[in-house]
Amino acid sequence: MFIALEGGDGAGKSTQIPLLKAWLEARGLKVTVCREPGSTQLGESIREILLFSKNEGISRMSRMSELLLFMAARAQLVAEIIRPALERGEVVLADRFLLSSVVYQGWGGELDVEQIRQIGQIATGGVLPDLNIVLDVPLSVAKARRMDEPDRLESEADAFHERVRVGFLAEAALAPEKCVVISGEQSVEAIFDQIKKAVERELSLRDSEAF
Ligand code: TYD
Prior knowledge:
By secondary structure, this protein is an alpha/beta fold. The protein is built from eight helices and five strands; from the N terminus they run βαβααβααβααβα.
């Protein structure tokens, strides 16, 4: 099973992922965790370029370059980590996946969303999450939670991040069988309870399909 944790910056994914991993392991499942962009050597190098490169004047990174770099990191992640883990029968927990590109570069960056899906299909070879868990928080809350210096994408204007939030909600509404939206404004425990329910549902669906 392949699960992606998604949502705007500061929505609380990094708190929930270790909780979910431990819970799945306690049920006897093997779990592989990865983050995007990154987790592979190539992906971490691309991450440096994407998040921390100087972005000024004529050398400003174009949206399309940005998209293709995210996709290159993703292609490597699928080849090196995700596909092998799924083939071993493990659960893969990804801190972001293709939905982030659809929403950040598409809804936020105003690239064509359909094109992003097509490129995503090619980059991943069709290895896509069974379940996207979208943690949703208003921008003001997300900003108040930010502790360190904003990276290149976090430094985008508020209007970009507003479009990202709307995009996550719209995309989730388009594919309700693959997406669940959970308010990130609740306590850590309340959010985790809802994540567990969504994952339980997915697990039992698979059990019933196995027979
Ligand atoms: P990260 O530090 O992992 O942020 P977070 O902890 O919020 O997940 O940085 C990833 C940043 O890259 C984040 O701002 C979202 C953005 N991003 C995209 O714009 N497109 C993508 O396809 C992915 C995977 C991430």
